[in-house]
UniProtKB/TrEMBL annotation:
The gene is swrB. Pfam families: DUF6115. This is Swarming motility protein SwrB. It comes from the Bacteria. Residues 64-85, 93-102 have a biased composition (Basic and acidic residues). It comes from Halobacillus andaensis. The keyword Transmembrane helix applies. InterPro entries: DUF6115 (IPR046118). Coiled coil: none annotated.
Length: 140
């Protein structure tokens, strides 16, 4: 009977040691995962901070360029006056020529039965560009 209890005690102790070892390895894994997450978070923060610094430097350069332009006689008031007083040029009667856009020419030639390759060669466009124009027009 003593041997039986001794064997059961060893078995229970073995199971407990195995369970403790398993728990220990799982805790180590979770700690490693947490460390990796912290490292990734730090890397992302560093990346964002470097991007922000670059953006700040670009903004400073833009400000200095704008202030140089203002020193050259262009003030905000002058710019606004120029915008208000601007009138677009009127087309003369001689320059009134209608030229269809490349998109409409592609569609017209396609409706006439031309192949995509022929259309691209005639209009000096890429084949892929021509195919996309035709596909987008067909979806409408």
């Amino acid at each position: 009977m003593v041997y039986f209890l001794l064997v059961i005690s060893f078995i229970i102790n073995g199971i407990i040691i195995f369970a403790l070892f398993t728990l220990f390895t799982r805790v180590k894994r979770t700690e490693e995962i947490e460390l990796r997450r912290n490292e990734v978070a730090r890397e992302i923060e560093d990346l964002f901070s470097s991007y922000l610094l670059e953006i700040k430097e670009e903004n400073k350069r833009l400000e200095t360029n704008l202030s140089r332009q203002d020193k050259n006689g262009f003030t905000r008031e002058n710019r606004e006056q120029k915008r208000e007083s601007y009138l677009p040029p009127h087309p003369s009667q001689e320059n009134r020529r209608y030229e269809p856009s490349p998109h409409s020419r592609v569609i017209k030639l396609h409706k006439e039965g031309e192949t995509v390759d022929d259309i691209a060669k005639q209009l000096n466009l890429g084949i892929t560009e021509t195919e996309l124009i035709i596909k987008f027009h067909q979806k409408k």
